[in-house]
């Protein structure tokens, strides 16, 4: 049989030899420094304590440096072949569910959230195979209103994007910091769509500022009835509203083409139940989407990360659908790039080393971590499936024509999956879905997926797939790093807690070892007692093995 051509290839990043040479010189420097410290310890009373303290610190940084080499030693780059994907599959491609998370209409303005939503609705991909879900942890009628406006604007925006093949497809980014693709379309049409967009954002911004939705607008959609004066962001019933039903009759754009499904979800919130932040929202989305569209691939993005490259879905599929390697791949991670870098990048927020070198380095040793946004997962992998080479993904899942229930029935059914108590006494947040109880839920979820045998790949194409809003001030930077560090040290602690515990026990027991082996006075423990203790220790170690 003819061997199929690969849908992606892996290249080594250039400059490895230069980096390795530099690393060897640094290693030599570190060793010489440690040698000097160890051989020149001053006498007691002449600064010995400070010397030993510095030695300990330098030793720790040396260990840290050695560990970081594992992620910088062999970075790789992936290249996809979308033309081969097109030749092989045409438009017979799997469905994709896209999750966007938002939490607060004040700090994450709804007009920007919907720009992200519109950018992912406008992927260069068959619309009937895309379902977009917005999770609103703020449970805000203002965000719902903005999404309803977006569902109407999409009818003009999507055909416009596809007709002139514009990039990026976030209207906010396209109109206000575009790279100049405006010449691709007739000026009249451009100003028409721009006016529509500006009118819409003005309406949304003034409504958000006033904090109230005009009564006449509320008459336009039944979804507004979900809110009453008692609802707060921390105390409300589950809300699921299907704003565009892609499988329905009326879901067509201006050109008569099908529109993607668009769903608003605010999971139930009650003060007495812990909501588990973004992880809780994602898990509710996994369940709700399994009833509405149930597509085999899930992409999730933060609401401030718009799609900057309309080919990213096809790019990601080059990995999953590759005949040789695809079946090993659990998720495809894209980097977090920002479009609001500060001058000279003074706080290092563009994450260059992480994005270009370290995550690419991890990609050569089992795969990148899951970093919370810009990631394509297999639904089954998020739901806890353990890797097996016999497993065959059902790529038609979700597309197969099911007897479609009434839209109201679906909404009612899915609400029951987004309640506070649904997960009680289940494995959600543990073996199933995104993990709970960690500030970096994404990292531990990715590690768990690796532990179940799946690999991941990192794709960093020339044209950034997603662009977000990064921190720009020192205060924002510190807050983000504090959260990341807290979360990561927890991961580190879980992994190394046993080692630390054993080390502490050894240190606490130093006087006993002294009495066993070193002391020559009366306090020395008799040899027979030492022997008996060693015997007991060995026995104690054997117990868990037996
Ligand atoms: O209760 C919450 C809190 C946050 N979010 C959403 O989660 C996302 C990330 O939260 P943010 O406060 O912006 O955190 P960042 O530090 O910017 O997030 C980075 O770090 C997180 C933890 O590692 C990852 O989950 C994110 O994807 C990654 O962008 C945003 O879209 C929020 O709207 C919720 O949906 N519910
Ligand atoms: Mn963020």
UniProtKB/TrEMBL annotation:
Broad class of the protein's primary localization: Golgi
GO terms of molecular function: cellulose synthase (UDP-forming) activity
Keywords for the protein's UniProt record, in alphabetical order: Cell wall biogenesis/degradation, Glycosyltransferase, Golgi apparatus, Membrane, Transferase, Transmembrane, Transmembrane helix
Cellular compartments annotated: Golgi apparatus membrane
GO CC aspect terms: Golgi membrane
Record-stated family: Belongs to the glycosyltransferase 2 family. Plant cellulose synthase-like E subfamily.
Protein known as: Cellulose synthase-like protein E6
Organism: Zizania palustris (Northern wild rice)
């Amino acid at each position: 049989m003819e061997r199929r051509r690969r849908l992606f290839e892996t290249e080594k990043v250039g400059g490895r030899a230069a980096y390795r040479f530099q690393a060897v010189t640094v290693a030599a420097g570190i060793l010489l420094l440690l040698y000097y410290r160890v051989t020149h310890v001053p006498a007691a009373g002449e600064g010995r304590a400070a010397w030993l303290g510095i030695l300990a610190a330098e030793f720790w940084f040396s260990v840290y440096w050695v560990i970081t080499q594992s992620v910088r030693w062999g970075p790789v780059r992936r290249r996809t072949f979308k033309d081969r994907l097109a030749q092989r599959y045409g438009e017979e491609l799997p469905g994709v569910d896209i999750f966007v998370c938002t939490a607060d209409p004040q700090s994450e303005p709804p007009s920007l959230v919907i720009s992200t939503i519109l950018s992912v609705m406008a992927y260069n991909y068959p619309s009937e195979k895309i379902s977009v879900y917005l999770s609103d942890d703020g449970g805000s009628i203002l965000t719902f209103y903005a999404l309803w406006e977006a569902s109407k604007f999409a009818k003009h925006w999507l055909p416009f994007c596809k007709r002139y093949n514009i990039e990026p497809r976030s209207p906010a980014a396209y109109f206000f910091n575009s790279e100049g693709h405006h010449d691709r379309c007739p000026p009249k049409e451009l100003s028409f769509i721009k006016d529509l967009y500006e009118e819409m954002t003005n309406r949304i911004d003034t409504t958000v500022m006033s904090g109230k939705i005009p009564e006449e607008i509320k008459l336009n959609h039944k979804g507004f009835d979900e809110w009453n004066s008692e609802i707060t962001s921390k105390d409300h019933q589950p809300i699921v509203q299907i704003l565009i039903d892609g499988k329905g009759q009326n879901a067509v754009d201006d050109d008569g083409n099908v529109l993607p499904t668009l769903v608003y979800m605010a999971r139930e919130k009650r003060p007495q139940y812990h909501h588990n932040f973004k992880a809780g929202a994602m898990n509710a989305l996994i369940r709700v989407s399994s009833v509405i569209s149930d597509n085999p691939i899930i992409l999730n993005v933060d609401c401030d990360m718009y799609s900057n490259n309309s080919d990213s879905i096809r790019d990601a599929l080059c990995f999953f659908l590759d005949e040789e390697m695809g079946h090993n791949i659990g998720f495809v991670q894209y980097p977090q790039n920002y479009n609001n870098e500060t001058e000279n990048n003074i706080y290092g927020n563009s994450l260059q080393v992480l994005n270009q070198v370290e995550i690419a380095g991890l990609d050569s040793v089992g795969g990148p971590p899951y970093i919370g946004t810009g990631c394509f997962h297999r639904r089954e992998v998020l739901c806890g499936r353990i890797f097996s080479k016999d497993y065959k993904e059902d790529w038609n899942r979700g597309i197969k024509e099911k007897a479609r229930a009434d839209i109201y029935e679906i909404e009612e059914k899915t609400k029951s999956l987004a309640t506070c108590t649904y997960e009680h006494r289940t494995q959600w947040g543990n073996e199933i879905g995104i993990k709970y109880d960690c500030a970096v839920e994404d990292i531990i979820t990715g590690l768990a997926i690796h532990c179940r045998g799946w690999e991941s790949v990192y794709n960093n194409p020339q044209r950034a797939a997603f662009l977000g809003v990064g921190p720009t001030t020192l205060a924002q930077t510190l807050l983000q790093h504090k959260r990341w560090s807290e979360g990561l040290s927890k991961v580190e602690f879980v992994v190394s807690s046993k080692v630390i515990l054993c080390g502490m026990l050894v240190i606490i027991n130093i006087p006993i070892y002294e009495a066993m082996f070193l002391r020559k006075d009366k306090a020395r423990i008799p040899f027979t007692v030492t022997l008996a203790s060693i015997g007991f220790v060995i026995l104690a170690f054997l117990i868990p093995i037996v």
